[in-house]
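>> received
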Amino acid sequence: MNSSEQAEVLQHMEKFGDVLNNLTHNLLLRLLSGKKLEVNPLLNTDRMMGMLSRSVKVDPGDVLQKQLSFMEKQLNLWQNAAKAMTGGDFDSIVEEAKGDGRFVDEEWKQNPFFNFIKQSYLLNAELLQQTVDSLEFKDNKLSQQLKFYTRQYINSLSPSNYILTNPEICREILETKGDNLAKGIDNFIRDLESSPFEALKVNQVDVNAFTVGETLAYTPGKVIYENELIQLIQYSPATEQVYQVPLLIIPPFINKYYILDLDEK
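>> returned
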């Protein structure tokens, strides 16, 4: 890699780092100032932020210490990145948690560009998580809500989620000459066409690959109660004798009721 190419890669690294840092600091400022957060519409955001401003205790010294530690690690990360661009080893400032499957590809470790992106993301994630964890809440439920939202926010920013910052996807683009992107767009359009008006429904399988009664079992039953949250299905008995008290099964929401009808067993 010549000097101009090295400079271009470093510019991309700096741009990514600045964007991620700005997002992290913006969220921290909102958390610490009590400003409104645009979160899941199922949450009462006004109530949540009002409670946050009244029931959370912030230690300014602790927050400042975490910021200084973050800045020091960022400086070390940049020094390591510059050293790696000239052929040196890229030492790790921060490592992903054990079992984190997002960064198993060797490019995250061996390629200076992707290594920098990974570590920059992990540093910002660490700062956010530590800051929220250090807040002292009077309301435990509010504490759990805020920590849950923070985890979702952090996960949504993972570089593994985006095309140009995921080495596996970049490699597949080159190997397939972009055919993987074309297929992905086709699948996305198909999902849009089959989605309800107010939401995106993502199909996990080929919807034409299954036939009820052949490749999918079918248990006769009917909806005996429903409201805005649930449908209660009573399946018809398949034996001559049944228990007097019915068995109520509540499967995970993501699988809904049809997980019970996947096969004859």
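>> Helices lie at 3-33, 45-55, 60-85, 107-110, 112-134, 140-156, 167-176, 179-193.
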